Amino acid sequence: MKAAFGKVWKLEQTGGSIIGGTFKAIQEKNKAPKQPRDPRLPKPKGQTVGSFRKGLTMLPEAISKRLGSKVKLSWKLSGVKKLDSGEYSLTYETPEGLVSLRSRSVVMTVPSYVASSLLRPLSVDAAGALSQFYYPPVAAVSVSYPKEAIRTECLIDGELKGFGQLHPRSQGVETLGTIYSSSLFPNRAPAGRVLLLNYIGGATNLGILSKKESELVEAVDRDLRKMLINPNAKDPLVLGVRVWQQAIPQFLVGHLDLLDAAKSSLRDNGYQGLFLGGNYVAGVALGRCVESAYEVASEVSNFLSQYAYK
């Protein structure tokens, strides 16, 4: 709970229960002075979900544009070692050949299994801990149906409304869940159509790795016709199928113990200045990854301050 739902865990710790912690958090929020809001941000009504006009890809593209030539594409880190000077030597495989760089600090936001491979020459214990995080396969299947394909009982005022649906295994369906993309965000589908993003696979369905894309679409369509789509509706328009062989990390019991073991091993073996980040450290939600990025940046700044000229 602490690893996967840290904010909920904190509510119980501070208030004795989730409800008590919620009331306490509201009271503290009301007492604290309100921070000025960036006028460029939208003003949503109440709690809502957010995205970008052309999808989440806009965020890394904007960051890349801001950083300019500092961003290197198609550079694969193949080796890390610490020099006697205290700096790190990083070796990259690039389109132009091998390139070596030196840096006082390194932040690894790659998946834990990639970090494990890179760090094994530095610390077997850290690598061993990082190798134990589990990433099951998941496929994202985006399909579109005409609005009249939606079952009448699933419509509200003639529209498909809501965030989407999650499917417990007891329902006898393969699809993990469905997000109503065109209901959540504007301009996701033309008039008269709906866009549905479906996830299939997970820890209890490793068989998706042996299926063709067409078979995954068939499985999703079959499931949707059991609960959302009229059984006699036309075949969907398939907009994309992406299979992630190792998708998002599972926050299993002992997750934080493994993470602490990896960090402690690096620290105890003299690898200060080497920081671990990414969704297995922070949590899988985009917002939490962004918050964690600021936290790691602060750690890096504090570390490097000891080398600044006084």
From TrEMBL:
EC number(s) given by UniProt: 1.3.3.4
Catalysed reactions listed for this entry: protoporphyrinogen IX + 3 O2 = protoporphyrin IX + 3 H2O2
Key words, A-Z: FAD, Flavoprotein, Heme biosynthesis, Oxidoreductase, Porphyrin biosynthesis
Coiled-coil segments on the chain, per record: none
Functional pathway: Porphyrin-containing compound metabolism; protoporphyrin-IX biosynthesis; protoporphyrin-IX from protoporphyrinogen-IX: step 1/1
Cofactor annotation comment: Binds 1 FAD per subunit.
Protein's name according to its UniProt entry: Protoporphyrinogen oxidase
Organism: Citrus sinensis
